[in-house]
Amino acid sequence: MNKSNPLLIRAWGVRGEGYSSSPGVSRYGGNTSCVEIQCGENVMIFDGGSGLKLLGEELCRRGQKKAHLFLSHFHYDHVSGIPFFAPFYRSDCRVDIWSGNLPGRNATRDAIHDYMRAPFFPVGPEVFKADIRYHDFRPGDTIRPAESISMRTCALSHPGGGCGYRVDYEGKSICYVTDTGHVPEKPDDTILGLIDGADFVIYDAAYTDLEFPEFAHFGHSTWEEGVRLCKIAGARRLAVFHHRQSRTDDELDQIGKKVEALLPGSFVMREGETVEL
């Protein structure tokens, strides 16, 4: 890949369920889901959890005027940063917001307007100054946010629905698959199709296989299932993501050793981390 068009992955929030400020999570971070993928000059943001606030401040420092925000779904831990995203309040910025898990026309726009209203929030999106463009699609659609980027989508198994994404850019592929459940010993064919041969897979690993039976209907998966899916699909690297709110740094260290041993090059994602493909 041309070094003038880098493919970078930056983690701004890696936690699930809710924000955590416990001293025991300081190394991996306590902010909820938000991942930036930079495809050359194109900034692609996946989910708007509490980490989105930090990313917004950074984008303003960089002078970035355009970005795309892709939402997996609208649960609080994936949208809590939206009201605090600094580029929304700048008239010289444009942000395209995409989602595919809700039915109906204007679903993306309506969901955000419903989230930012009294008594939950003092002002609505009408205070945004940026050029905001809302896009609805259906899971399974292929979308093209930029000429050089092709993005496949798929439905995920989560209460209320969810959407997974695959970014293909200059011969490299990154998949963002979070908030999805699984059936033991029955690999999800839809996810396998999405991550087939991918270079990098960010996967929901809220639980371990040992914990999973207690939470089987919560719509989340395990790091072990992520490894199994990647091996079947021939995906090269796994990033363990959406850490349980109570998961400590020491526990994540141990998971990291295991996942790297089973799928070399794989790791537990931490806030502030940057990966270049």
Can you offer a commentary on this structure?
Strands 6-5-4-3-2-1-14 form a 7-stranded mixed sheet. It has a 7-stranded mixed sheet with strand order 7-8-9-10-11-12-13. Helix content is 21%, strand content 28%. The termini are close together. The longest helix is centred in the last third of the chain and has 14 residues, at 249-262. The model has no long low-confidence stretch (mean pLDDT 95). It contains 6 helices and 14 strands. It is of the alpha/beta class. Helix 4 packs across helix 5.
DSSP strand (E) fraction?
25-35%
Helical segment tally? 6
- Assign the structural class, choosing from mainly alpha, mainly beta, alpha/beta, alpha+beta, or little secondary structure: alpha/beta
List low-confidence stretches: none
> Radius of gyration, rounded?
18 Å
Instruction: Calculate the terminal CA-CA distance, rounded to whole Å.
Output: 9 Å
Largest sheet features = 7 strands, mixed
Number of strands: 14
How confident is the prediction overall: mean pLDDT?
Answer: 95
**Strand order within the widest beta sheet:** 6-5-4-3-2-1-14
H/E series, N to C? EEEHEHEHEEEEEHEHEHEE
Concise account of the structure shown:
This protein is α/β, with parallel strands linked by helices and 277 residues long. The chain has six helices and 14 strands.
